[in-house]
## 1
Amino acid sequence: MNDLELIFNMLGEAATTEIARKKDARGFIENKIAANKGGRIAGKARKELESQTGKRVVSRENYLEGPPARKALPHKDDQ
């Protein structure tokens, strides 16, 4: 995930939160509607940027490195 992917993800989450607060969403259905609206806002913004730059925002890369390798604890039979 690159910086732009994170930004558009945050935009969708922030838009969803604001819509849910403004509508005083309660329960699953009302929050689902707010989430769909917030996602559409971020989706439209992403598509607009992609059309202006001619470059895709979504990538296959991971934003963070994988977790560090861990040593397994010895099995009690190995002692």
## 2
Amino acid sequence: MSNSSRRRYAVVGLSNRAIGQYILPLIGHPKLPEYGDYSRHGEVVAVSDIDLARIKAFNKAMGVEIPGFLIQDIGRMIKQARPDVLIVAGPDGTHVEGIVAGLKHDIDVITEKPMVIDAAQARQVVDAEAKSKGRVHVTFNYRYTQTHMMIKRLLMEGKVGRVTNVAMTWNIDTYHGSSYFYRWNRDRAMSGGLSISKSCHHFDLVNWWVNDRPQQVFAYGALNYFGSKSPHKPQGNLSPAELRERSPYRLRWSAPWLEKPKDDHLIAYEKVFNLPYEKQYPQDPPFDIFDEAIDIEDTYSAVVRYRGGASLSYSANFSAPWEGYTLGINGTHGRIEARHYTAPSRCPFPADDHETLIYYPIFGHRQVLEVPRVDGGHGGADPMLKYDLFVERLPQSRELGLLADARQGADAVMVGEAVWRSIKENRPIEIETLA
């Protein structure tokens, strides 16, 4: 660390997540107090991105002068800005370059999830970390929610005994799910597919809960809702603009009598003055959810076997009527159940905005456990994660192992790759055989 009492951070990728989760908190802007103020603990000394115009526009909007570098100049940025920590938060397919560069310069790296987009890159990161004085921290913020921490405690206390199997069903609604297909996530070369880009959150949760490493995966999946063969694609010889205008996904959420949906994925974009995105998302041709170019799946059914004998039954749909999950964790001495609504305001029915867990001892009576509500992004997870990263490790972080390392980041990615490879090859995939 430098001689200053504040740690020096350089950011790779000026994404909305980078702005909202890291840069604004470290700037501590008085007009944006909702992001927190960690400026006493750290400062942003450089930013790299594919678009220098975007960095320039951000500096002007926020009244700051953070030095900007092109993404290919990460090494030069590190040498000139001398950061103590590198924050990697660009598109998933760009993570590996930033992580490895930071480790080669012996500095710590904080990376957004997924850590990388395939098993080969994951092994590259793990190998680079083994040779470095720096360490990798993967920001799986789902671990930090009150519900998920309570589940972890129940499991650590032996409430269900030895975990035998987990059933997890995730719904991503038509508002959120369709958004992935307007962005780079639709391209496997950039994201690894949604079994990595999104489902890595879910796989990491289960890996963390059962405290074990995945061994084998078998999966089915397809592109059922989006793409050129979508059953929801407007018919006729339509221009891209007409397709977008008549899309039922757009009509569902843009009717003038509807209140504009609230989505924390878009908060930073709205707050930071609509920064340019021309390099990332060129206007011609515009991305469309019915494009032939989409090469990923939007539906998954998978079974994961763990080394210790537990298994996971997982399904995900990226065009569901409501958003959230249902969960069951079975063990030799009991069962835990949960149902979570990620976006109650977008549900087509009255949905609870509070959560409960139900615990069933195998020979006892049902116990309903209330989960305390916490303010902040992602169900209160983001403020805790930022404190963990920028100030010091929280007691519950040390107790529960909330901050994920490179190996755990790699395991989540490898499950995701095994899922799409199993779909493509129609066979079980052994995790250890992945590149």
## 3
Amino acid sequence: MNNKPCSTKPSGKDMATNTFHPVALECETRAALPTDEAAFHLNRTKQTLRLWACYEDGPLRPIRINGRLAWPVSELRRVLGVA
């Protein structure tokens, strides 16, 4: 596990530049992540996660919010073995 303190930088996408700023999963404060961020942490493509959601055969299931997929941080931590 990483002993560095969590950054105070905001996580997620910078809407002005549309760039993604990853945050260590141990430091993540949001309850769920969008597909692109979850795919980054799982080292999979976004399409792989979408297929898991469609066929319901992946190691974790997303939450559907108004037709969008949100991946629970607690499940990401469980699958990756992160405390």
